[in-house]
Amino acid sequence: MSILVVGSVAFDSVKTPYGEAEESIGGSATYFSAAASFYTPVDIVAVVGRDFPRESLQFLSERHVDLSGLEVADGQTFRWAGEYEPNMNDRQTLDTQLNVFADFHPNLTDRHREQPFVFLANIDPELQGSVLHQTIHPKLIVCDTMDFWISGKREALLETLTKVDVLIINDSEARELVDDYNLARAANQILDLGPRAVVIKRGEHGATLITNGTYFSVPAFPVLTVIDPTGAGDSFAGGFVGYLAKSQDTSDTGLKNAMVHGSVMASFNVEDFSIRRLESLTQHEIDLRYERFIDMLTL
Length: 299
What we know:
Blueprint: E1 3-6, E2 10-16, E3 19-26, H1 28-36, E4 42-49, H2 58-62, E5 65-73, E6 79-84, E7 91-97, H3 110-113, E8 117-120, H4 125-134, E9 140-144, H5 147-152, H6 154-161, E10 166-170, H7 171-178, H8 183-192, E11 197-201, E12 207-211, E13 215-218, H9 232-247, H10 252-269, H11 276-280, H12 283-297
Parallel strand pairs: 1-4, 1-8, 2-6, 4-5, 8-9, 9-10, 10-11
Antiparallel strand pairs: 2-3, 6-7, 11-12, 12-13
């Protein structure tokens, strides 16, 4: 079944210890779709400016990603610039220009409203709520957020969380959301806010899934050289939701399997700048790494 993703398509300028990439294609919807498209068709709803080279997303179209919901507005495309510390976990935002994204108001077509799987990428919780109001009984809703929204749009975020099935969030954001440093307690408190499951991303330490009956962790796949971590979380979400949509198994067991697929896709993403690695990636490479990952997890 298809997935609807609502998020950003952007230009990223990134500097890491391994080099830099200027005005490369990025954005949460881009990374998510590049990963999820290996599992199932994806519909993107996002906005770009007239300066955006639509042909740069041709590879997504060839992977059954529908771009009819990619609005082209007068103005410049969303831009972000950042620099990573040598540990590749800490980064500094150097510049953010929302441009046309500042006036983004997703209007879903009938096709988009009926998609059974929905991923709300890291956008304003008020927009996330607007999208959910337009959907028609989706089978699964997965949501991402960040510290900016936790502090700046808390009430809107809490309202959105009452309507989603899975929240994907990093460890520091989970602690901030419920004001509890203990991650296990924090996760259980997040479940009380509405989601059936919470996935806590822990960077190089992997990710943890918590439901009312499950506590399951997967490590990060060991990548010898991490070139650019930008988009790793969205790529994880792409593998995670992509697997669930393909398998149609949203049980706790299905969520566990989805965690492995998310980790596999994130591990490829960090091997190059921007979406380059996801663009060149093959299904055979994914299958081989998945098998290696399963071997890692098996006694």
